[in-house]
Amino acid sequence: MQVAIYFFICVDLSLALFEEPALFPLPFLATSIAEVLCLTAFFGRLVHFAKVTPQMVFWKDTKNICIMVTIVLTLIDLIIYGSLEAVNIHSIRWSRALRPVFLINFPESRQIRRTFRSIRNTLPDILYVFLLFMFSVLIFSLMALKLFGVRSLKTVEGLPYFTDILEIAFELYVLVTTANSPDVMMPAYNFSRWYSLYFITYIIINTYIFMSVFLAVVYNNYRKHLKNEILKLAYLKRRKMIEAFNILKVKVGTEFVVTEAQWKRLAKIVMPHISSPHLELLLRISDEGQKGHVDKMNFLRLADLLNIQVVAINIKRHPLEDWMPRVYQSSASLLVQRMVRHRIFVWVYDVIILVNAIFIALDEKKPFISNAEWLFLSLYIIEILLKLYTYEPRAYFGRKQFWNWFDTLIIIAALVATVANATIQSGNYNSQQILDIVLILRILRLLRIIVSIQRFRLIVTTLINIGPTILTFGGLVLVVYYVFAIIGMEAFQGKVWFFDPNFTTPEAQVCGNPALTGSAFARDHYCKNNFNDLASSFIVLMELTVVNQWHVLAGGFALVTHQAAKLYFISFHIVVVILIVNIFIAFILEAFFVAYSLEKSEVETAIEKKIQELGVGVQEEEMQDGKLIDNMDAKDSGFSGDDGDNKRKALKGLYFRIASKKYRTVDALLQQMFESEITPEDEGPSLDEILNLSPSDIYPKNPSFGNSA
């Protein structure tokens, strides 16, 4: 059902590519039939959801109401638009801007809704800052009108300088983004050096102070509401674990406990595929005294214990050790293995990569440089062969050994492309495409340096961790871009046209619209930046997000329509650049703070401690720099034996370790960070109080230095 819904959502959103103004035009009948099919699928999903949801819950859910209202409005718009088209009257398809509602409101898109909630929760606080900011812009606009409006100054284009209050406000708003600096200042600065103080003061107050305050407010509110959501989850989890304990408890002596048999049954029901060694390990942590039962405090940790990934590792022999043991265990072979495992081996290849980078930057048409490329390629191949000789191949190419796979694939691809390029050139035929591929693969090899430097790896793995959430923000940006693109196409389609550079007609020089004569838009040849189809609209919106020269784009479209069109571009800047980009920055900051500073949880430490006590631990340090599991493979087997020697005999090469921290998600890290603030004895507030928990309940009502700390 999820795949089907996402398929129909993609089809529904992509219809804008085929509707007027279209990138790939299709008849209105074809697109309308496709849209009706999508609406039918959405309605069917809603009916399906209603069948498995209590009636009161279904009708109280705002998401369901939004979907139903959007379906009805879309059908009404389709009927009206189709009827008018039948009598050759062109109208606006306003319901197309509502299509992202389906992406946001289906249960499968809870992460995107969570981001929208962050924006909604941030709006009240940011509104006051924004009003103060706009008041500052207005004050400076009035000052500019009085200072410069009476001095008959002219712009570079020969137009009056700062004589219209609305034009001044727009130019000063643009100056906050620095897109028109220093151009907007130059007429006043040329007249008098002292007028530069006005612009310097404005930039300090509005660009540096107010924009920083926006980020601070967004970050503070984002973290506050995120903490509120996670505390709700943490308290709910605590209450449910207490309820489970109360159902299963039996009295032993003076305390209530859960028997070992019941504890094992529960763990098996919750995680049917948990291995026997893993289950035994968790039981030994929960029942430290081996009393045959688990007390309340240890029972409450069960959810956290099951949530930590513990890897059982079976040490395996290298295939060459089985095939030719005498050769593989010879002194020369062991020397080679020690060399490959040594840190100096990594350093040597780091130097080789850096030297290779210098050679890549040089002119490869010289024979010495081109021959050196073969030498570097040979050295990289030797490196991989030596590693495969030293480390067990299946472990080296394990499921989570991303950098080993990356390294090998890049080298193999570079070898194939280099051989292909040499073969083609020897036949007096030069393929630029093959040459481009070879050059790109050579440069990509330089990324191997990331593997060797610990800090680089930490940054890259953090970026990999936050990847799924970045995709959530991508969905948010897609929604906003889509809505603004639809509005932009309805407002500006056909106002600006792109002509081939070979066209020298007067019409081509002004982008097909005489209103652009002499404008910066036409002078800079921005004709291809238009809203004539969805793809072009997205590119224009991307350029507006970058903000450089966005005032030129806004000015151009204002000339071909009306000066009020600038409000469209200002609205986009406020929503995307000030709000969404700042929330994205807030998330990145939080993710990096967590990844850099978060210590291991108390539960995780307990597991590691027990692993070491049992004598079956593998240190994380042994996993670094390609040595990772050395010759190991995950495997399930029995866990028995009590004393050290018996354990070793029973385990037969079976070891345990906590899965590497780099595979944790950011959400899990944030939850761990906030949960650590709840003491084990704290059973939390009542269920109603938890569900009604607000961010203001987390922080002191009258904050002072003492209670805030």
UniProtKB/TrEMBL annotation:
Q: What is this protein called?
A: Two pore calcium channel protein 1-like
Instruction: List keywords of the entry alphabetically.
Output: Membrane, Signal, Transmembrane, Transmembrane helix
Gene3D superfamilies to which the protein is assigned, alphabetical: 1.10.287.70, Voltage-gated potassium channels. Chain C (1.20.120.350)
Q: Which residues form the signal peptide?
A: 1-16
Q: How does it sit in the membrane?
A: Multi-pass membrane protein
Q: Cite a single Pfam family from the UniProt record.
A: Ion_trans
User: Gene encoding this chain?
Assistant: LOC112664422
According to the UniProt entry, its GO molecular function terms are: monoatomic ion channel activity
List the subcellular locations: Membrane
A GO cellular component entry from the record: membrane
Task: Indicate the segments forming the Ion transport domain, all copies.
Answer: 3-224, 342-597
Xref: PANTHER family: TWO PORE CHANNEL 3, TWO-PORE CALCIUM CHANNEL 3
Membrane-crossing segments per the record: 26-44, 65-84, 126-149, 161-179, 199-222, 344-362, 374-390, 402-422, 434-451, 463-487, 538-560, 567-596
Q: Which InterPro entries match?
A: Ion_trans_dom, Volt_channel_dom_sf
Q: Positions of the region Disordered?
A: 680-709
> Highest taxon of the source?
Eukaryota
Q: Record the organism.
A: Canis lupus dingo (dingo)
